[in-house]
Amino acid sequence: MALSEDGSHDDYLFKIVLLGDSGVGKSNLLARFARNEFYSNSKSTIGVEFQTQKMEVNGREIKAQIWDTAGQERFRAVTSAYYRGAVGALVVYDVSRRQTFDSVGRWLNELHTHCDMNVITILVGNKSDLKDAREVSTAEGKSLAETRSLFFMETSALDSSNVNAAFLTIVTEIYSILSKKVMQSQELKKDPSIGSKKTVVLDPKQDANNEEKKEEAPKKSWCCSS
Ligand code: GTP
Ligand code: MG
After folding, report:
1. Which of 45, 86, 147, 178 has the greatest CB tally within 10 Å of its CB?
2. Ligand 2 being an ion, which residues bring their Cβ within 5 A of it?
3. What angle do CA 207, 57, 144 make, to 5 degrees?
4. Distance 54 CA to ligand 2 centre (A)
C-alpha cells in the first residue's frame, strides 16, 4: 500500500509478527488484544493465524495485522511467508522460564535473516502475574532490550496488564517512522536538484530496486521507490 506524496492516504495496514518460544503466551497476547479473551488451557498454534485490529494513532485509523505462529519448529509454517512484508515484531519470552529468555537472541537472528534490521521490535516479558515463579528480572529484560536497541515491556495476557500498551507502542513507533519518511519525501520533492517522484511505500513488493529478490523474503520493511 502506498502513501500519497502529501501523506493523505487514509488506509494504513501494518503487518506485525509475534515471535518467541512455545508456551510464552503469544496466542494469548493476541487473543487478549484483539478479543479481550484469555485461554488458560490453550493448545500450541499450528500453522499461521492472523488477526486485524483497528487502532487510532494521532487521530488516524490504522489496521494492525498481527501474525501468530508456533514457537515449536515442527508446527511452524513456511518461514519466509510469515515474515514477508512485516514492519514490526514482538519478541516474547516468559518471565517465569529463563530458557525462553535465553532464546531471544535466536529469534532476533531469525527475524533479521528474513527482514530488514529496521523492523520495529519490542521485547516482551509475558506472564508478569506469576510473581512467585519469576526467573527473569525486569532489570535483565530492560538491559537486553537496551543492548539490542529494542523497546521493552512486561505484560500479562492473564490479567491484561500492558497488553494494549505493548501493541500501541509498536504501532505508534511504526507510524512515527513512516510519517518521517513521508516528510522527507516531501522535502526531496521541494528540492528540484533531487528527483521529484518519491513515494513512500509500505509494501516491499513495490520496491522497484528489489526486483531480483521478488521470490525471496523481502529485505526491506519499507522503502522509497523512484
Ligand atoms: P505456541 O503456540 O506453542 O508457540 O505457544 P504460545 O506462545 O502461543 O503460548 P500460548 O498463548 O498458547 O500460552 C501457553 C500457556 O501459557 C497457556 O496455558 C496460557 O494460558 C498460558 N499463558 C499465556 N499468557 C499468560 C500470562 O500472561 N500469564 C499466565 N499466568 N499464563 C499465561
Ligand atoms: Mg500459539
Report:
1. 86
2. 26-27, 45
3. 75
4. 21
